[in-house]
Amino acid sequence: MRTDEPDANPKPHVIFYDDIADTKYRDRLKLHNEELYKYYRAQEGLSHTGHMEYAKWLFASLLAVHGGAIYALNSLKSSIPVSKSDFLIYAAAQNLAAVFLTLVAGMFAWINLQLAEMYYREVADPALLYRHEHSTEDVRWIDRTMYLSAGFGIASGLLFASSSITVIVGLVAAKPAPLPW
After folding, report:
1. Predicted TM-score of the model (pTM)
2. pLDDT of the residue at 155
């Protein structure tokens, strides 16, 4: 049978399981939707836990890295002649920008997981246990916020890399005296 031909025995669109005459189909559909309901509830819980854990990890890691870099740059200040220390300002500025981008990435991660949690709460409708309706929820914003969060996080990491290169090039050019450890 060709896929573009209409089905010889189309199933009428019914909402309540009790209205489905084919008992085998009804039982399969009901079992399927019960499993979907359980899955959606579990995903709602995982999304909630995920946004809390991810936000903590993201903020702690990136802010610690960039804050530590700014502190390290400040400790280099005394060993670099003032006339050759401009690179420290540029590197610090890159790390400050990265802190901002980290906060933006964290915000989009939080929004993303909030949207996912709300989506799963919406589709995990207990009505799935006694009626059948297809979800028409739009999930594009969940995807968009995930990519925005990842993009800002990557940009923050790239700023750390460029800050490191700025410091290395600046130190090579300045040839400072060794730090008294």
Report:
1. 0.65
2. 95
